[in-house]
């Protein structure tokens, strides 16, 4: 038999099962890999993003007593590892919010969403052609290239 049993509370929660390549080819018994998706309405929790905090300017002297005062034994008494991990992240995020300053994003340095490498190359080329035209005003070939790049940038 290829598959003995998959236990689910509702058969509509599992997509059709696909049999993949064998896990070990050298043994007498070959065990195949299985591929399926579990359909769930549970939303993923937003992950803890430590990049928004300025850890160099944190008040660790105040953070340590705050974390020591937490009853970790009751925090981790839950039955599942995922719940314990989520509780730890929530507690750590609260401590970080209290004792670590947030980074301030430089407003002038952020690029608009339509900005990409291709647009940046076109704008650099446009600037170079503009400077070249200013130094040599009689070159019609440069002027034609400049007008073409101007149309592409728009």
Automatic annotation (TrEMBL):
GO terms for cellular component: extracellular matrix. Transmembrane segments: none annotated. This is RNA-directed DNA polymerase from mobile element jockey-like. One of its GO terms (biological process) is cell adhesion involved in heart morphogenesis. The keyword Transferase applies. Keywords: Nucleotidyltransferase, RNA-directed DNA polymerase, Transferase. The lineage of its organism: Eukaryota, Metazoa, Spiralia, Gnathifera, Rotifera. It comes from Brachionus plicatilis (Marine rotifer). One of its GO terms (molecular function) is RNA-directed DNA polymerase activity.
């Amino acid at each position: 038999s290829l598959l003995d049993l998959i236990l689910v509370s509702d058969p509509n929660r599992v997509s059709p099962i696909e049999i993949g390549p064998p896990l070990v080819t050298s043994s007498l018994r070959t065990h195949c890999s299985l591929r399926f998706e579990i359909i769930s309405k549970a939303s993923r929790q937003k992950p803890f993003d430590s990049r928004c905090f300025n850890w160099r300017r944190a008040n660790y002297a105040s953070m340590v007593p705050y974390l020591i005062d937490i009853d970790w034994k009751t925090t981790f008494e839950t039955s599942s590892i995922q719940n314990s991990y989520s509780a730890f992240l929530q507690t750590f995020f609260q401590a970080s919010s209290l004792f670590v300053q947030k980074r301030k994003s430089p407003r002038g340095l952020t690029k608009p969403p339509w900005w990409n490498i291709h647009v940046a190359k076109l704008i650099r080329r446009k600037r170079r052609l503009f400077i070249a035209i200013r130094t040599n005003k009689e070159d019609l070939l440069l002027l034609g290239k400049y007008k073409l790049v101007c149309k592409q940038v728009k």
